[in-house]
Amino acid sequence: MDDKDILILFREEGKENYAFNLIVRKYSERLYWHIKKMVISHDDANDLLQNTFIKAWNALPEFREESRLFTWLYRIATNEVLTFLKKKQLRSFLSLTDYSRQLENVLESDIYFNGDKTQKALQKAILKLPEKQRIVFNMRYFDELKYEEISEILGTSVGALKASYHHAAKKIEESIQELI
Amino acid sequence: MKEKININQPKLKENPFTVPDRYFDKLEDEINGRISHVAPKPGMWSVLKPQLALASTFGVILLMGYGAVTLLTPDTKKTDPIPENQISEFNQTINIEEGEIEENTDSLTHTKGIDPDQIVEYLNADASLVYLASLE
Predict the structure, then answer these.
(1) Which of A27, A59, B71, B125, by CA, is between 20 and 30 Å from A12?
(2) ipTM score of complex
């Protein structure tokens, strides 16, 4: 069932829960990986994903389909992630570098990491990037979203996103050599 | 020298993470458990609609009340002016009445009914008391 049909179903009385379950089933995996690559810890990713869906549930009656459901959900998830990371940094009085080091430690001890040495080096190199650059890189590199879609989600121009991605890719290529 | 790593190789683009067993199936139940306690919030318009209806009802009642008061109260501004001769007649009546009151209440001029001999006797009795007091 496509998003339009799901939304029509959601507006029918007594069908909200059923329609919402369809949305959860359709997008939970994509959103989980988007969040997970930003916060690394499974528990944090699980909390943020659930919060994303609860917020979507509350805001769905207001959703006017000015953007696609998928980009709207991505935007909620991204805002959740950014708010979470800011709180973490503020609470521990750590700078961005220190927090990325903390995330590196989480990655090292993550029992759900199944990759090889090069893949780990890539993840570590990504963690060294500033938050927003990291989000842009992950969306383009792993999720293979179009720049137009990322622009819709983040509210940033396509030109700025392209520049940000290429800058990030260059930095990653440089630091990955040192990490292997 | 280390070989330069091409980040665009397909192997690197693969997802290196996994999830706990049946995580996504359980997730659906967990989210369902959380949303069953929270009904989706009604839209802004459905919140404002009854409040606007209530406010406009009050407005209509106020307008009707104002209209009723305006229609039922006589317009005092439209009363005809009192003619000059009626005003002077009224003033004369007041003056006559004031004069009568003055004549009846002035104690100094009101001497009728008191005998002059009684006055002289009263004054002499008073004087003898003063005299006797001075002798002591």
Answers:
(1) A27
(2) 0.85
